[in-house]
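Lecture 7 notes: from sequence to structure.

We start with a single chain of 386 residues. Read the sequence below before looking at the structure.
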Amino acid sequence: MSSSSAFDPDDLKDKFGAAYESELQNLGRFNLAIFGKTGVGKSTLINAIFRENVAETGNSRPVTTATRYYHRDGVPLGIYDSRGWEMGETGQQVLDQFHALVKEKKDAPVAEQLHVVWYCVRAADKRFEDRQAEFVRVLVAQGLPVMLVLTQVPQNAAGELHPDAIALADDIASRNLGIAPHGRPHLTMALADEWGAHPAHGLDELLRATLQAAPEGARQALINSQQISLELKLEAARAAIRLATAAAAATGAVPIPVADAAVLVPIQITMMAKIAAVYGLSTNTGKLATLVGAVFASTGVTQAGKYLVRTMLKAVPGYGTIASGVIQAGVASTMTWSVGEAWAVVCRELFKRGDDLTALPTEELRAMFLEEFKRRAAIGRRGASS
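Now the structure, written as tokens:
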């Protein structure tokens, strides 16, 4: 790309909008099947881990006489919730229907398959019946990873779990049911009780085990859908940053004239779209695109290439390349890495504030981005010179 084809702000917004919509489509969907008696806390567990309260406010449709499928537009998550077996239908009927559903979806695209099963047992029940064990064994035989989740497990201020819950977990583990990942239940408390005596716990471990069990093609959808681990989102964002940084370095392998710095913008726009998708920012795409346009454009500067030179390159000294009028691989990769890390900070802040662009004015977000960019660029320069 030459300087004559540098982007104007509207073009930047359009390109980001298109890239972001594409990344959201590429996420596919993570589909979770969940079983357990009424009152075990399935909806509470789902709504604690996943965003947008799919289990309460999502659309639903029956897929068998015993199972409903819940989803919500804008969230790449589907929940198969089976309730019939504790409402008069025999367990075998429910299992037969579920087996037919798994078989039907087996050869479908990854986004339509069933990926992981949670079987929930309330810790306060203090017993795990033989018929429940047999139900779980048949679920495992479907070929899907099955996780057994003990819900509402009390934990004291010292972090000790209730001994009755531990005894129940030991009993379940001794049955060798084939549950994932290591044959033991996950002990959880989805929400702290109203008096604060028992804190929420165990959710991050359950989420990470679910991510490990999910097929590769469904993991990005799961990372997008979950709301409890900023660390997982950052790990995925940094994977996107590494890919873009490598692409920028390859582009700079043949030195880029400073006037043509806009050649890096498509790489960075795609990276920023991937990061926004990782964080599951569900705000209006146009608002996000406007923010990206503000990042890449300043008052009176309508060409992204000029902006990169006048503002960003000032924060990436060194290598002796800018002064000579060219951008080589080291500068290109440092610039792109710094853009990605700074944008991840902005996306994290938006996510923490409930994905509300009105909570922080665009100019404040832009200032946050530039401050982080300059800080990261200085780190990159020190790393290159060490």
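The longest helix spans residues 329-352. Keep this in mind for problem set 3.
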